[in-house]
Amino acid sequence: MKNIIIFCNSSWNIYNFRANLIKKISLDYSVQTISGKDKFSNKIKNLSKSNNINMQNRSMNIFQNLKEILKVRKIIKKTPNNILINFSNKSAIIGTLASFFFENKIINVINGLGSTFKNKNFLKKNFIKFL
User: Fold this and answer.
1) Within 10 Å of residue 19's Cβ, how many Cβ atoms?
2) In whole angstroms, how far apart are CA 17 and each of 8, 23, 56, 122?
3) Above 90 in pLDDT, residue 26?
4) What's the predicted TM-score (pTM) here?
């Protein structure tokens, strides 16, 4: 059976916006989630196998981000033959980098980039454009 991993920066986002998707695809696939810890973390355990990690959503700290990449990589490595669906800017970057060298299909769903392009930070704006 194919495995689908849904990765988002918060459990709140998965619970409020991805619950119906998880219920629907659970009929044909094994589904698990990766998300940041918050007060909705326990609620998504009823939807699928859930993995919660400590994420600093707005952090640009390279060491913190590397730690998050390694945690996600460890989770992905345990389950072969994955389809990884990333549902936020940070999870798209971290999930894609964590999947490097694995034979995963990656789907990045990115919305809400308007604030990124309004941002005056040259490096951040151009890095997102590059990706």
Assistant:
1) 15
2) 11, 12, 20, 31
3) yes
4) 0.82
